[in-house]
Amino acid sequence: MQYHLNGFKPGNYQVPDAVRKPYPTPLIEDLPSDVDVLIVGTGPAGLTMARQMAEFADIRTCIVDMAAGPLLFGRADGISCRTIEIMEAFNSSEMVVKETYQLKQNTFWEPDPSNPSHIRRKEKIADARAGLSEFTHGIVNQARLHELLTTGMENSVANLRPHYSREFIDLEIDESLSQDMGAHPITATFKRTDSAGEGKIETVKARFIVGCDGGRSGVRKSLGITLEGDSANKAWGVMDILLNTDFPDIRVKSFIQSKDHGAVMTIPREGGYLIRFYVEMDSIKKDKRATDIKVTEQDLIAKAQQIFHPYTLDVKEVAWWSIYSVGQRLADRFDNRPSDCTDKVIPRAFVAGDACHTHSPKGGWGLNTSLPDTFNLGWKMAAVLQGRSHPKLLATYSTERRKVANQLINADRELSKLVATRPTADDASEQARIDTAEIEAFMKRQSGFVAGTSIEYFPSYICTGQDHQHLATGFKIGQRFHSVEATRLCDGRSQHLGHLVKADGRWRLFIFAGNEDPIDQSSAFYQCVDFLAHAPASPTVKYTAKGADADACIDTYAVFQRQDLSMPDLHNFLWPAKGKYGLRDYEKVFHTPPENDLYDLRGIDRKQGCIVVVRPDQHVANIVPVKAHQELAAFFDNFMIAQS
Ligand SMILES: Cc1cc2nc3c(=O)[nH]c(=O)nc-3n(C[C@H](O)[C@H](O)[C@H](O)COP(=O)(O)OP(=O)(O)OC[C@H]3O[C@@H](n4cnc5c(N)ncnc54)[C@H](O)[C@@H]3O)c2cc1C
To answer: Whole-prediction pTM value?
Structure first.
C-alpha cells in the first residue's frame, strides 16, 4: 500500500490520501463515578489494557488522558513480531501486516577509508529477526496502532471509548478496604483541560487503577514508587520526513557513521515515501533535559546532510520532529504493595509501560515493552474481577514484567554505548565511534529479545512443568507459544495454532497425541479427553460456569500425527455442542501437515505426545504428559476458583 505521496496525512490508512481526515475532537462526557478498572493514559500500555478489559461486558472500565484527543503523529514506530502476535490475539494483525513497512534488511555505512569525508556502504544484511515468528518486524506510525486498539474497544461488547482532556491529579487508597475484593478502595482526582470545562474537578472510585501515564507518571508518584537508574546523557533528534535523495539505501534501515559529524539511523516507514531519521545530537549536561537543547528542524536536516555526504538529501516535508532522550530507569516496584510483602497482599494499583521503565529510543523497545506489560496484566485482572481466579494472581504481574524491564534496561545500556560516537557528559574522555560490526553482533545476539519472542517469565505456579520440557522442546515454558501451522481435520484448511489463542481470557490446552490409536478407548489420548470431559476433578468441569459452553473457560484442541480420522470417530468433547442451538464446533481438531511436520518443528515426543497448557496471554504455562490427569488438575487448582 502506498500513501503520503502528496504530504503526510495521519488517520486511517484504509481511507485514500485525498480524503483522509484527522479524527474529529472527541465529545466530552462526564467521567463515571465508580468503575472496576480505571486506566490513566491512552498510550500503547493504556489502550492495550482497555482493549483487553473491553472483551468483558461485565467489567466496567474507564480510560482517561490529558490530551485533547487521540495521538496523530510521531513517537515510536517499530512494531515487533511479538507485538503483531498480540494484535492477532485482538484480531487486528491483518491491518498491521498490510499497512506497515516490513523490515527485511539492515545496511551499515562508514567513512570511506580512501576519502573519509565520504560515507560508503560497509554491508547489507538480512534482519536478524527473520524467522522468529510468522510475522515480520513492521514500521508504522504509533498513532495508527492506537487507532486499531481504540476501534477494537469501540466495537467490543463493552463499547468502550477514552475520555480525553482529563489530567490526573492525585489518588488515594483506602487501606481499610484494600484487601476487600468487592470494595472500591481507590479514589482518583482529575482536572478537565478543555476550554469549556477548564479546571473542573472530577473524582472516580475504582476497584483497581493502572497508571499508564508515561515517563513522568503522576500515578507512579502518588504511589511513592521511585524510578532508579541513570538520567539521560545523550539526545537524538528524531524526524519523519518526505524527501528525494540519491542515497541508494533509503528504503532499507541504515546505520550511518560519518567521520566528523556523528551518526544517523534511518528507518523507512509505511506507505513507500516516508522516512524516519534519528540524528545524533550533543551530550546533555547533568540536570538538563533534551528539550533544553536549542535546535530547530532545519538544524536536524543540516546535520543529517553533513553526515550523508556525498549523498544529497532534498527534504520536501517534515511531518513530525522532536528531540528525544531518556535515561535507563526502572521502577523499584510495579504495584502499590511494599517490595517485601507476600503475594497474599492484593495489589490494587499498578504502573505499566514508560511509567515504570524508560530507556533510549534506539532499540525501538518503548512501545513493544509497554504494550505487552498490560497484555500480561489484563487477563489476570479480568480473571480476578470475574471471580475465576484467586487475587494472588495479580502479584505475578510485577514479578514477570519487572524481569523483562530489567533485561530491557541492560540491553539498552549496551546498545546505547555502541551507538554513541561522542563523549558523554559524564565521561569526556570517551571517544568511541560506532562500530557497526558490534551493532550487528548485538542485534544477532539479542534478536529474540528485540523481536519480543524470547521473553521468558520466571518459573512460578503459572509457568511450571520444566521436568516435562523434553516432551515438546520447541514450546519453551515461560515463553510465548511459538505458533506453527497445522491442518484442520474437518476441512483441510491450514491454521496457525497460535492464532487460536485469542485475548478472550480463556486458557488453552493443546493435546498433541502420541502414536497410539486415539479412537481406542484405552489409549492415553482417549482417556485424557474423557477425563477432561467428565471427571469431577477435571479443570474444564470444575472451572466452567454452570450452563456455559464446554470451552468457555478452558479451550481444548487436539493435534494428531495421522490424517485418516474423521470427526464422528472422536470423543464428543473434541467437537462439542455449543451456543443456543447446540451446534457442533468442528474447528478443534488438527493433524500435522505431512510436508512440514509440526512434531519435528516443535520437538514433540511422537511416542508419548503431551499437553501444552497456554495462558490467555499466549505464554506457555505448563507441559504435562497425556496420562498425568492429576498433575493437570493440580496446576489449575493452585489459582483458579471452582464455579460449581
Ligand atoms: C515525545 C516522544 C517521542 C518519542 N519518540 C520515540 C521514538 O522515536 N522511538 C521510540 O521507540 N519511542 C519513542 N517514544 C517512546 C514511546 O512512544 C513510548 O515508549 C511508548 O509510547 C510508551 O507507551 P506508554 O503507553 O507506556 O506511554 P505513553 O505512550 O507515553 O502514553 C502516556 C499517556 O499518558 C498521558 N498522560 C501523561 N500524564 C498524564 C496525566 N497527568 N493525566 C492524564 N494523562 C496523562 C499522556 O498524554 C499519554 O497519552 C517517544 C515518546 C515521546 C513522549
So the answer is: 0.94
